[in-house]
Amino acid sequence: MRTTTPRTIILWTVVGLVGAAGWSVLALSRGEEVSAAWMVAAALGSYAIAYRFYAKFIAYKVLKVDAKRATPAERLNDGMDFHPTDRRVLLGHHFAAIAGAGPLVGPVLAAQMGYLPGTIWIIVGVIFAGAVQDMVVLFFSTRRDGRSLGQMARDEIGPFGGAAALLAAFAIMIILLGVLALVIVNALAASPWGTFSIAMTIPIALFMGVYLRVLRPGRVSEVSLIGVGLLLLSLVAGRWVAESSWADTFTLAPSTLVIWMIAYGFVASVLPVWMLLAPRDYLSTFMKLGTIALLAIGVVVALPTLKMDPVTDFATRGDGPVFAGSLFPFVFITIACGALSGFHALISSGTTPKMIQKETQIRMIGYGSMLMESSVAVMALVAASIIDPGLYFAMNAPAGVIGDSVQSASHAVAQLGYSISPDDLARAAERVEESTLLSRTGGAPTLAVGVSEIFSKVTGGGLRAFWYHFAIMFEALFILTALDAGTRVGRFMLQDMLGNVHKPFRNVSWKPGLVLTSGVVVGLWGYFLWVGVHEPLGGINQLFPIFGIANQLLAAVALAVCTTLLVKSGRLKWAWITGIPLAWDATVTLTASWQKVFSSDPRVGFFQQRSNYQDAIDAGKVLPPAKNMDDMHTVVTNSTVDGVLSAALALLVVVVIADAARVCLRHVRHPGSSRLSEAPYVESTLVAPAGLVPSRREKEEARDAGVGTAPGG
Amino acid sequence: MRVSALLRAARHVRWYIRELTDETAYERYVTHARDRHPGASVPSRREFERMRTDRQEKDPRQGFRCC
To answer: Inter-chain contact B25–A80, Cβ cutoff 8 Å?
Structure first.
């Protein structure tokens, strides 16, 4: 351990002051526009302090990571799944696996409450909840030979809680896929440029697949380079297509895109992995890491000013057009990934623990990656807050509110308390070469406008339309990959469950079972996609809260498992480390579920909504934004499904938490009765640094052991 | 001096990309197999890469990514 020197005291005082300055400017400014630089300062200052002090405290005092204890990668090294991986490489792997569309979409929608609540939750949430969850799950899974979250739930809590956790994970996967697909449909509808360039990713991926399978097996970086080149070409070509006579072919209505998405999801998930999924994954990983790096540079170079209010009136009134409900609890479920994401627990208990070299690297990989993910969410919030608030609301309010002309949109935005002229709305669409930007809900188009604003500041205004479609393609690319991979995982879970009833389902290669289960999974998320597109009240408006609730409920499951493990492994006095985030997460999510089920405000409560519309049907009236009786019946059906779903999800998680509490209580009463399934201690012979930069002592150790830290060493 | 520093940086980048894309999986596997079982035959690169994707087919949770 390093000792405190005057230099480190000065250094950390400066870091603290930078962070504090950022927070003060963000919190205290009223009425004037604030530079995004302050948001960056607040974020980076807070991350640095949290990583240096809190993460270190958890790693060494609570978890007691042991550099002398061999990790599964060292003990079970098989050259394939288990192999000690350089920490810098594993950081890249882990980050690429946890980062996705989630942290980009949520903050954009939450910007309707202003930028301040979102910023606070993203930064405070990641420090005390999200990064802690990722790190603690990674630690416990590493101590259990890389066991998955579901297995740990079964082993440590019991079969009942374990089954509930599995069922919750399946339901969450379905909702997630439906909502992600909806985001893409909203981004591609009536956009020939976007649709063409996304369609081209399929032949490009097929070509890459054949290249890797037949021509040059395993040459991933060269084929990825070719693929990215072709991708950029198809992006440029998209503009030519949009201006040519082919434009009509690629101008698709949302309901047509739904059919395409469902067909794609089914076919892709039935095809062999090497054909479409594996090459697509390489492509989207390259684009993901590249674009995030570009965006970080863009934000720092351009330092745009935030045009959104710090806190809007919707935060307290709860009648925002993007999603209904007030700040508490809805900001905390809308921004899921980026602050706290249950899905990360699946990664932290998947491949990463099988590859980590040293227990001491858990802080850098688990906590560090999540801080990086959080910074992506901050960038998304910046992108949404630098565009004109009038344009933001015109893009994100449902069509039922906005109407279908720039005049009606301008009027509707004025009703919401913001202003933008019809001319400005038309010009904004023209500048990114889209036919319209009205009611392009789902977050992706708004993010793309923000990104094009930032990038075109750096590269000159002429490229604005290119950058807009670049951002759309970047998101669509990995959402489509997620549809394919997610359908496969959902199918795997379903095959496993059905295997209990009819044996052949267990054999994952059994073709009839494979096609049937794929069909069921695609049908389920396809249903939500269909509903989302045809929902008179606005699909994102209705479904996004359920998505957020589902995602945060998975985090509650992960945190419950972590807390149980802390208690059972004799760390009772530190159980608050994950116990407090669990209490907060459970409060937020169950409050949100409660309001979605029982609220008497028809915009928030699904059943109130249902009864209002049912009463109107009985009275023979049509309630706007429904246009006719068919719409009225659609609303009644959808509200019923959404309400039942919210209630069922909440119930499942209550079961998991209650079961975990029972196990903890039993352990506290009779410590002897509980059994801990930790892998036995084996001494490590590997030498590797804990952090990104090796300390002087670590360098000496490496020298003594005769290994270098250089490549190939 | 400057050229050699540049070369070294380029080597670092190449190493990192090859590791990150897991292009080195085959080399690693062969080294591992030779180490543990010197006499045994190792699959060709083509066979090895097929085996790898086919395994992902069997268990899609391998290499799963987040939303």
So the answer is: yes
